[in-house]
Amino acid sequence: MEQERQAVARNRKVVLRGYIERAPREDDMELVDGGAMELRVPEGAGGPAVLVKNLYLSCDPYMRGRMRDFHGSYIPPFKPGSPIEGFGVGRVVDSTHPGFSAGDIVSGMTGWEDYSLITKPEQLRKIQQSDIPLSYHLGLLGTWRTLFR
After folding, report:
1. pLDDT block averages, 10 residues each, the chain of length 149
2. Alpha-carbon distance 5 to 35, whole Å?
3. Which H or E run includes 147?
4. Domain membership of residue 124 as a residue range
5. What is the CATH number of the domain that holds 129?
6. How far apart are CA 63 and CA 143, in angstroms?
7. Which long-range contacts (CB under 8 A, 24 or more apart) does 58-65 make?
8. Are residues 126 and 143 in contact, defined by beta-carbon separation less than 8 angstroms?
9. pTM for this structure?
């Protein structure tokens, strides 16, 4: 019996090198090779999950505060050595959640990496394909959909 081969890809990640107390600089972040990963939701993901290929990532002012070691905010700081997180638009590669299928285009919180495993898929929103550029879903369209859902 021949074993079925799984699709595998490299997963590059942008990580925070360490906490800062000034305006961010390019050298505060580092592009690292996260290694090879199977392009499917791993067993034991802790419930329904979605694996997305990130297409667009947002860089927003609030992220500067997350680069500090400050825990008195509505959102926790980034962890040095882990992928930076922000709003993104991606294509579903694999899903164990009944509401998402491979090929769906979604927006929500993702990592600054080629592929993100989303373990809270209820925070993702499907994007209906139209003549509007997908990157617009990170700006006004993304904000509008979040505020008025």
Report:
1. 67 97 95 94 89 94 93 92 94 96 95 96 89 80 47
2. 18
3. helix 140-147
4. 8-147
5. 3.90.180.10
6. 16
7. 58/86, 58/87, 58/88, 58/138, 58/139, 58/142, 59/86, 60/86, 60/87, 64/23, 64/24
8. no
9. 0.85
